[in-house]
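Renewal narrative, Specific Aim 1. Our central claim is that a sequence can be written position by position from structural information alone. The example that follows is taken directly from our test logs and has not been curated for this report. It begins with the structure tokens describing the chain, in the order in which they were read.
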């Protein structure tokens, strides 16, 4: 099996040398154990860094044939950098891992075993989040819960540390969305999946390239790229308010017609306010429904991926070489 390891790097000059050494050591071990082929590669994706990151990557590529550097033309953000690496990788199995090695590399070996055992996608899942601050842990976990409430399929406590098989990569290539949230897209692919649990360490040098602003942007991206629930909520709220307004209007009429307490002009003022408020919200909700549909259509997500095709398997002689991912784009 040919392995590719994808590492997104943004201003990572403090960690890069150590990261490179550790990854090459891991590759050597896997090679010696006969678990991967010689032409496996470590791909560093320079996400438009402004420090010596690219120079270091070039140095690495010169000193080892197993190192490959990709330089994005400008800073596009972590998700895009990972995607670039995944789509450019040549391996049969592709692992993405952060440059700061907060994610335990030992998990890669377990991911490979799970892949060999038949999992097309293997998620790295954090066992505990002790190295994170209370704030980060709390907000992250609350966020994962919110996402699943909103109907977004997501793996709890999994960031972008995972193994994708060739078929999963080819399926991923068909998602052409610009508002990229890989953690949401990958579970959409389907296939056999497995999880590998690991402990997350502290960043060993440099500082986080994910300040609060970027984190919030990613979180918002996750919600708005995968859920039309907020739009649908408008309809429900509109319906509720319409019903309530109708009730209150009847009451206002009743006060006007059957009691002596009504102030002149009151009924004719409040009844339209109630009714119109409800109707307006309901109409916005209906527009929201169509907007939600249009929004989903514009993403042009593939409708399905074929996992096995017996006809192809017969032609190729074996089932496992039938790498076919054909989809129909709606
Ligand atoms: N990163 C990137 N582009 C960016 C920001 C970050 O490629 O615009 C990379 C960064 O180099 C690292 C990974 O994304 O490899 C995760 O960033 P970081 O470790 O700073 O995030 P944290 O672990 O603090 O959430
Ligand atoms: Mg990190």
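The sequence written for that structure reads:
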């Amino acid at each position: 099996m040919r392995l590719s390891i994808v590492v997104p790097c943004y201003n990572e000059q403090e960690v890069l040398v150590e990261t490179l050494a550790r990854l090459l050591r891991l590759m050597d071990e896997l090679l010696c154990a006969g678990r991967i082929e010689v032409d496996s590669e470590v791909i560093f994706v320079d996400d438009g860094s402004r420090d010596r990151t690219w120079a270091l990557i070039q140095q690495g590529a010169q000193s080892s044939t197993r190192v490959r550097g990709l330089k994005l033309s400008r800073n596009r953000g972590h998700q895009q950098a990972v995607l670039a690496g995944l789509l450019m990788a040549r391996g049969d199995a592709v692992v993405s891992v952060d440059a700061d090695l907060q994610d335990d590399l030992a998990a890669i070996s377990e991911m490979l075993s799970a892949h060999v055992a038949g999992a097309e996608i293997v998620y790295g899942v954090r066992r505990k989040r002790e190295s994170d601050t209370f704030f980060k842990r709390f907000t992250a976990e609350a966020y994962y819960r919110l996402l699943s409430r909103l109907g977004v399929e997501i793996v709890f406590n999994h960031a972008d540390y995972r193994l994708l098989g060739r078929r999963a990569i080819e399926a991923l290539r068909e998602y052409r969305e610009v508002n990229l949230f890989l953690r949401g897209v990958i579970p959409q692919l389907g296939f056999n999946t497995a999880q590998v649990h690991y402990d997350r360490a502290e960043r060993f040098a440099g500082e986080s390239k994910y300040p609060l602003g970027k984190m919030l942007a990613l979180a918002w991206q996750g919600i708005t790229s995968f859920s039309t629930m907020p739009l649908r909520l408008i309809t429900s709220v509109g319906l509720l308010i319409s019903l309530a307004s109708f009730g209150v209007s009847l009451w206002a009429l009743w006060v006007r017609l059957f009691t002596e307490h009504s102030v002149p002009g009151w009924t004719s003022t409040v009844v339209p306010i109630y009714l119109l408020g409800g109707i307006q919200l309901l109409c916005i909700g209906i527009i929201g429904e169509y907007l939600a549909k249009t929004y989903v259509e514009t993403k042009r997500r593939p409708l399905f991926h074929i996992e096995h095709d017996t006809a192809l398997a017969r032609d190729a002689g074996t089932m496992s070489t039938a790498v076919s991912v054909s989809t129909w784009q709606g």
